[in-house]
What we know:
This protein is of the alpha+beta class and about 200 residues long. The protein is built from seven helices and five strands; from the N terminus they run αβαβαβαββααα. Helix 1 crosses helix 3, helix 2 (about 30-45) runs antiparallel to helix 4 and helix 4 packs across helix 5 (about 115-125).
Amino acid sequence: MNPDKKIIINGLLDRVNASPYLIVIDYTGLTVQQFTELRNRLGAGGANCTVAKNSYMRKALAEAGMPDIGADLTGQMAYVMGDAEVFSAAKVIKNFEKEFKKPEMKVGILGNAVLDAVALQSIADIPSREAVLSQLLATILEPATRIARIVKNKFNPDGDDSADKAEEVPVAESEAAPVAEAEAAVVVAEAPAAEAATPAAE
């Protein structure tokens, strides 16, 4: 085998082994500028888009022990792989196709499963793992949030500290009551003494 050919196939083999998925797209009709834009969008989501001879990719897939999709690798094919989720890459390609009417997803591999174009389109509509976890967390926390809101409205409907003030008033009155009673007792005790002193002066 030509050494240069072997180097290219080994490079493809490394990418195939490192990626949990492979999406094959037909990029016929894309301009250089559009293809660059597609690569940039895929790159932002952790995917890369590689152009290689279909015969080289067939060889790399065979050496990697991947399912045989060689019959679908005809024409101007590009290969999307990455270290992130397949949902993100498929969504980028689908949205790009809506915008520019190309490229077209042809076939894919996820694990050991071969995905046709319909399956790839469906995968593009599945939320990412982060989105699913976020929705799940919101669902789990919703009952607790509702209970906290009910408790808050129950004891503090106006949103101010009126409840705290209401609790402080009895405390203040209870503390002031003994003082007031003591002052009254002093006045009562002093009154007879004053009356008694008056006759003595006469």
